[in-house]
Amino acid sequence: xxxxxxxxxxxxxxxxxxxxxxxxxxxxxxxxxxxxxxxxxxxxxxxxxxxxxxxxxxxxxxxxxxxxxxxxxxxxxxxxxxxxxxxxxxxxxxxxxxxxxxxxxxxxxxxxxxxxxxxxxxxxxxxxxxxxxxxxxxxxxxxxxxxxxxxxxxxxxxxxxxxxxxxxxxxxxxxxxxxxxxxxxxxxxxxxxxxxxxxxxxxxxxxxxxxxxxxxxxxxxxxxxxxxxxxxxxxxxxxxxxxxxxxxxxxxxxxxxxxxxxxxxxxxxxxxxxxxxxxxxxxxxxxxxxxxxxxxxxxxxxxxxx
Length: 306
Hints:
InterPro entries: ABC_transp_permease (IPR001851). This protein is an all-alpha fold and about 300 residues long. About 70% of the residues lie in helices and about 0% in strands.
């Protein structure tokens, strides 16, 4: 039974990486902006966070550097799509390709760099409980902060004035503009905030989850985070559920291999992505449900003078 607490603990760890990025993309899409550049932003944040941690010796500095890199790339994306009205999908793809290439270039000198000793974390008393202690209460603090962030974001979107304004911008920017709200500024702020969370996810990957730097280490998790927003029907709580589902399937392959299950490693490696595709196909069959939950202006540019 010792393997099962380990599986649960690793599921939370892996799910946190995807959840942070998906929550950032959720903010973007609630404002009506689709950002396909999550993969590139996370890669740039991963190398920025790793380099900052190597030179400073502080994980916090690494997280801040990752958030800054993600926010900066998101700002460039936002200026193009929100102010210059470029195509959101093409611009996002360009951002993702740029991030993948530039991170590989600047990260060449860090493939052999190493971080200092990794600190251990444990919640006093609770971490000593049998079975549940090792599984739930020996996680990095960012795991618990992600849970709080999802709860806070769900409340903010549903109950606060700012959240309702953001949703209004995503549903009907023309109406929000007529009421005097600065639609473009709100969208730009949402894009930058979402980029910062994607950056935090990238830094978490290279500083905590692995911890190391290799080219292309995000390995499609940015695309999975993008798919999770649809899977979650644009709800923060469901984003967590989807992220931990993906994390569980990802870690299950290593668990099965450790248990000696005779299955081709290539099949086990594709399980997380196969599960994501199956879930998206099942959800897409109910088009009315998707339309009822999807922001009405998602992916559509806004022209104040039109």
